[in-house]
Design brief:
Length: 187
């Protein structure tokens, strides 16, 4: 039986990426993040279009997979799921602004509900540092409420803002890694 370890020591024997690659990746991510933050509405719509194309591709593969594995059972369900993906993708592509609004509303609902659940879990596990989960849940609830109470205006900028922030933080993370003395010494 094989066992898999999740500790960082498992990867110690592998060489890290060259320092210049980390710096370049960090700078590219930061530039992309700034570009996205420069026009969050445009990139919100682009995100909806990208999700639409992704759904269409996934739906097509799901339908093909249903036919390839017909003898496995669940053919009708796989076929329906593929058609659902295709339909959602087509809707996202045909109405990208309305789709961005819908995706943002769904995100707000998900944040609100998951935040409430995390708060309840945190309260239930207070003795095991549940306050961390409670704080995380509170942040989720607040983020969900900000999105939902500002809707539909938030639907035009939230996805782009989150994408830009993610790209910036990713780039800063790579630069921080590259500039650490331990990372430089390993090169």
């Amino acid at each position: 039986m094989a066992t898999y370890e999740n500790s960082p020591t498992m990867l110690r024997g592998l060489p890290g990426p060259p320092l210049w690659v980390c710096v370049l990746l960090g700078l590219v991510m930061i530039a992309a993040g700034l570009l996205v933050l420069g026009d969050v509405v445009l990139f919100t719509v682009i995100s909806a279009i990208f999700i639409g194309w992704t759904a269409i591709v996934a739906g097509g593969f799901e339908i093909l997979h249903a036919f390839w594995t017909k003898g496995w059972g669940g053919f009708v369900w796989q076929l329906l799921l593929g058609v659902l993906y295709l339909a959602c993708g087509i809707v996202l592509l045909s109405q990208p602004v309305a789709s961005a609004l819908l995706l943002t509303y769904a995100l707000g609902l998900m944040l609100l509900v998951s935040g409430i659940v995390r708060m309840l879990v945190g309260i239930g596990h207070w003795q095991q540092s549940g306050w961390i989960m409670l704080a995380s849940g509170l942040f989720g609830v607040l983020a969900g409420l900000i999105i939902l109470t500002g809707f539909p205006a938030t639907g035009l900028w939230v996805l782009g803002l989150l994408l830009g922030i993610d790209l910036l933080s990713h780039g800063i993370g790579w630069l921080t890694y590259a500039l650490q003395p331990a990372a430089r010494a390993a090169q």
